[in-house]
């Protein structure tokens, strides 16, 4: 749909708005429910369902907790009470058998080594009876069986075991008493067997009770899950009825309006809050209809502005092409004649110097100097125009390396002036172009050497510190400084604060520095005062994969400083 057609539809929709509102009033009178019927909001229905679910959760949680506790009690009684008691009963029987075997062996052989099983059995029996008394708490019948076993065992030891042992020790014959001892011991074993039988019965009952409790618990949990699923299904159906249908109606009306049917009124019969939403959407539709015409007018104006910007961009592209052409001409067609002028003037002076007077030689010097200065100016202009326009690929660059390269290029000037360059710590690695960053350091340090104070040795300090997402670098010197009102002027191309007879140069160096820094995404500033030196600061973004945004605070080794 074109913009003109949309504007026409918006105008028609706005014109039929009053008629549509009249139809809406009539439709509402037919379709709206009786005002006497109270209706909950969507939130109210959800609260009712959630309250029922919370009540079900509480009931199910309490009931399930009771069933779980009952199952755990039965299981704990079986595993922590009955089963250990049966094991202890078997061990108790073993200790009694060891006692009887030891007594019988000692009586028949008079070997005292047979008394060791008897004595250890007596000790084990006492310990096992104590453990069984603890485990059988709450089992009076089995506790009575244990008491009977204890009494029978004590009687056997009192009436038979100890007398037989004592008789053998004194040299008497105790063999006839063994049969009576065995009969008494068999009675004790029968009592122990009765206790074990009762323990087995209790174990079977407890196991059956535990299984029944687990089955009841599992059945209850299955019923709980089914109840939750049923309540979830009921909630889904309820929300579908009271929310889903009205929302789909509202969606269909909104889609029609967004498709261009601006005359369609949006109305809804449903929960109160959804009706409020429908009224808000209807109000929004009315405002859209009213503002669409104004929007179309603004869009037309925007198209005009866009066309103007496109024309300006085309003009800028053409201007850049002309600048490229100028750079080519300047680098070839302009410099070659200047080189010829300078060369032939020098040849003229060399060949005919003895025939020329001083004024003629001065004229030749003026011509050669002018040609050389023109070549320097052209080269500086080319450098300035190429910064940021060439398609160099930005790569990781170690600033220490490019600074070393710049210092190497300035080695003659540094040696002649005795300048000392000190780095306050190591420099980071950034993403950029090594050639232009070398030019940046060379221009800044070269200016510090050029504008030195004749009365003192040049001291140049290179610093770096980490900031939030960037590196802050700077070059500080102790030169002649600069007045505060000229801090911005020095970054403008061709702006010079001193005459050419005082300091050479073209007035482009700091302009190139600013262009290099801005091309790398940073800013450059200058601070200082007359006679107090100059401090040039600039920022460079940190590399994205920079492992640690901190600068090593340790000073470089002495050999890193250049004097």
UniProtKB/TrEMBL annotation:
GO MF term set: phosphorelay sensor kinase activity
Domain Histidine kinase: 329-544
EC numbers on record: 2.7.13.3
Transmembrane stretches, start-end: 45-67, 219-239
Keywords noted in UniProt: Kinase, Membrane, Phosphoprotein, Transferase, Transmembrane, Transmembrane helix, Two-component regulatory system
Pfam family, one: HATPase_c
Stretches with biased composition (Basic and acidic residues): 543-563
Domain HAMP per the UniProt entry, residue ranges: 241-293
Protein name: histidine kinase
Catalytic activity: ATP + protein L-histidine = ADP + protein N-phospho-L-histidine
UniProt cross-references to InterPro entries, sorted A to Z: CHASE3 (IPR007891), HAMP_dom (IPR003660), HATPase_C_sf (IPR036890), HATPase_dom (IPR003594), His_kinase_dom (IPR005467), HisK_dim/P_dom (IPR003661), HisK_dim/P_sf (IPR036097), Sensor_kinase/Photoreceptor (IPR052162)
Localization: Cell membrane
Chain intervals for the UniProt region annotation (Disordered): 1-28, 540-563
One GO cellular component, as annotated: plasma membrane
Keyword Membrane: yes
């Amino acid at each position: 749909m074109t913009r003109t057609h949309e504007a026409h539809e918006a105008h028609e929709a706005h014109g039929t708005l009053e008629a549509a509102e009249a139809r809406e009033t009539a439709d509402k009178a037919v379709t709206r429910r009786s005002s006497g019927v109270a209706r909950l909001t969507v939130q109210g229905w959800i609260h009712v369902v959630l309250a029922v679910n919370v009540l079900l959760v509480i009931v199910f949680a309490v009931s399930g907790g009771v069933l779980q506790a009952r199952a755990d009690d039965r299981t704990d009684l079986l595993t922590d009470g009955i089963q250990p008691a049966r094991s202890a009963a078997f061990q108790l029987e073993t200790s009694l058998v060891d006692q009887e075997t030891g007594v019988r062996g000692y009586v028949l052989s008079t070997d005292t080594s047979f008394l060791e099983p008897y004595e250890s059995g007596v000790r084990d029996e006492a310990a096992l009876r104590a453990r069984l008394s603890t485990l059988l708490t709450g089992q009076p019948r089995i506790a009575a069986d244990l008491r009977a076993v204890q009494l029978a065992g004590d009687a056997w030891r009192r009436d038979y075991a100890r007398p037989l042992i004592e008789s053998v020790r004194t040299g008497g014959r105790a063999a006839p008493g063994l049969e009576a001892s065995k009969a008494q011991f068999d009675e004790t074993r029968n009592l122990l067997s009765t206790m074990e039988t009762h323990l087995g019965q209790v174990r079977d009952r407890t196991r059956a009770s535990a299984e029944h409790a687990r089955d009841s618990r599992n059945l209850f949990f299955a019923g709980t899950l089914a109840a939750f699923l049923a309540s979830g299904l009921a909630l889904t159906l309820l929300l579908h009825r009271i929310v889903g249908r009205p929302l789909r109606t509202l969606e269909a009306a909104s889609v029609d309006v967004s498709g261009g049917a601006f005359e369609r009124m949006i109305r809804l019969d449903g929960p109160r809050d959804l009706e409020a939403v429908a009224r808000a959407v209807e109000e929004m539709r009315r405002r859209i209809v009213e503002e669409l015409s104004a929007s179309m007018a603004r869009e037309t104006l925007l198209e005009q502005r866009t066309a103007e910007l496109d024309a300006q961009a085309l003009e800028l592209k053409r201007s850049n092409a002309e600048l490229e052409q100028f750079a080519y001409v300047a680098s070839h067609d302009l410099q070659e004649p200047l080189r010829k002028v300078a060369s032939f003037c020098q040849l003229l002076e060399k060949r005919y110097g003895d025939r020329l007077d001083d004024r003629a030689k001065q004229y030749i010097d003026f011509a050669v100097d002018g040609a050389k200065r023109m070549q320097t100016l052209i080269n500086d202009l080319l450098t300035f125009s190429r910064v940021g326009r060439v398609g160099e690929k930005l790569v990781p660059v170690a600033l220490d390396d490019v600074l070393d390269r710049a210092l190497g290029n300035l080695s003659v000037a540094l040696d002649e002036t005795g300048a000392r360059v000190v780095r306050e710590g190591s420099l980071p690695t950034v993403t950029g172009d090594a050639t232009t960053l070398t030019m940046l350091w060379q221009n800044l340090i070269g200016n510090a050497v050029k504008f030195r104070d004749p009365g003192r040795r040049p001291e140049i300090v290179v610093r770096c510190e980490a900031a939030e997402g960037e590196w802050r670098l700077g070059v500080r010197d102790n030169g002649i400084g600069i007045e505060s009102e000229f801090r911005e002027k020095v970054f403008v191309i061709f702006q010079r604060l001193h005459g050419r007879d005082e300091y050479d140069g073209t007035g482009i160096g700091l302009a190139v520095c600013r262009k290099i820094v801005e091309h790398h995404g940073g800013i450059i500033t200058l601070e200082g005062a007359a006679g107090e030196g100059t401090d040039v600061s600039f920022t460079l973004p940190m590399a994205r994969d920079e492992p640690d945004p901190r600068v090593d605070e340790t000073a470089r080794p002495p050999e890193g400083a250049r004097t």
